[in-house]
Amino acid sequence: MLENTWWKSGIVYQVYPRSFQDSNGDGVGDLPGITSRLDYVAGLGVNAVWISPIFPSPMADFGYDVADYCGVDPLFGSLADMDALVARAHELGLRVILDFVPNHSSDQHPWFAESRSSRHNPKRDWYIWRDAKPDGSPPNNWVSNFGGSAWQWDEATGQYYYHAFLREQPDLNWRNPDLREAMHDVLRFWMDRGIDGFRVDVIWHLIKDAEFRDNPPNPGYNEGRPEIDSLLQVHSTDQPEVHDVIAGMRRVVDDYPDRVLIGEIYLPVERLVTYYGKDLSGAHLPFNFQLIQTAWNAHAIAKLVNEYEDALPAGGWPNWVLGNHDQPRIAARIGAAQARVAAMLLLTLRGTPTMYYGDEIGLARVEVPPDRVQDPWEKNEPGLGFNRDPERTPMQWDDGAHAGFSSHDPWLPLAEDYRQCNVAALSREQGSILNLYRRLIALRGASHALSVGSYVPIPSAEPLLAFRRVHGEEDVMVFLNLDAEPHTAELRCRPAGGRILLSTYLDRAGEEVGVKVALRPNEGLIVSATRG
Length: 532
Ligand code: TEU
Known about the structure:
Largest sheet: 8 strands, parallel
Oligomer: single chain
Structural class: alpha/beta
Distance between the termini: 29 Å
CATH topology of the largest domain: TIM Barrel
Shape: globular
CATH class of the largest domain: Alpha Beta
Mean pLDDT: 97
Low-confidence stretches: none
CATH architecture of the largest domain: Alpha-Beta Barrel
Strand content: 15-25%
Helix content: 25-40%
CATH superfamily of the largest domain: Glycosidases
Number of strands: 19
Bound molecules: 1-O-alpha-D-glucopyranosyl-D-fructose
């Protein structure tokens, strides 16, 4: 049965490799470190681990600037370490998803060295080179996502090259068939080594307007926002031809059994769902970041879930993301109490959940002093509040030195309260968020309704969010109180009550509820509905 495909019924767990586990005492996480922690990951009950880039890289953007798509940076280990990681993961029943960064390479990639060596080099066209305007200025007004012009002048060959991110990350030209073929070989290289799928970085960026027209100004822009928001990205991203490119990648992935293609896409719902592709020929899972981007209130969330459910193409499988290495941590955004409600939401909605390492121990914003800032975006556009370091800090394993992450001072600081907020301590604490995550994952895994059932909203008023998940005879209700006061939900139609399976407080299991469901402050409940 299709619904049993692992990437539909399973849960993805994202690891930021610099910050999961250091095995060689340099203060930066690595592959042997991850491998040594796979028992923990499998023990959570998740089904796949997605590892952010581990490829050779000058680390201008911490690995999102790739200098060799088919290798491992010595900082993280070796290809043999990767093979060992995959072997151990598979033993534990975990799939391994790699980050694929095809929109741009590092400026240190040999392809770029060739491309910039002369206008006549066969790889010139693998990147995006344009003449200056007659006055010498850049070809158009496009802005880099990290601030400043997206065009970099190259003195030697007298042209500009385009970079949507850092100037050390020149964009590749996906209109070039040889580049496409080379990239397909990269996918094959990793799948031949047992990799189970890819999370494709900025997939909606891959094709740019053929005429490189100026982007229009964003009328809603105000100071204090990053410069990239001053323009609407009408011509630089989300071009119709991108779907051909993605379908090409998908065909390569489909040549191997049981692999998954995930796309990173920051677009509104109606644009996002086009990335399933014509007749589902696109990404299996276009990442859905709506929960990250929507205000944390019941009305807004209910509305977005309905809109998303309605917008999905026939057969398109939904997915939900609560955090990643680019976004403030969920506990930082909505507080510790609501982070537990958010966990219940993520793990009860219809669609593949992606968890971000550390969220399960309630990691919040870790303060990073100015002299320890690492994020190149923060360095380019300081002080706007978009530093990504606070969500990239080391995993906290125990109350020992450096939280068990490393024997050395880590590359980013630990949370001040790491002696309380760590895996060992929270495992022992009955009602901890970590144990809540474990219970939620176990419940979801044991329930067809929760993992693959249909989604049925239950009418409810602010600040309550309620819905059912139904599969055959199994009928499960979810009630979430998004407020710090108690509230009572009322069931106006069937089912007229049921039995509590799980509270975010980890008590009340087995309690019967009727048409009135009383919720404590910041409480979420999963209730098995009484049929009839
Ligand atoms: O992020 C893409 C992206 O759009 C980010 O710029 C995001 O919008 C921003 O960080 C905050 O919302 C991907 C990677 O996830 C990110 O880490 C890389 O820096 C970027 O691509 C370039 O590869």
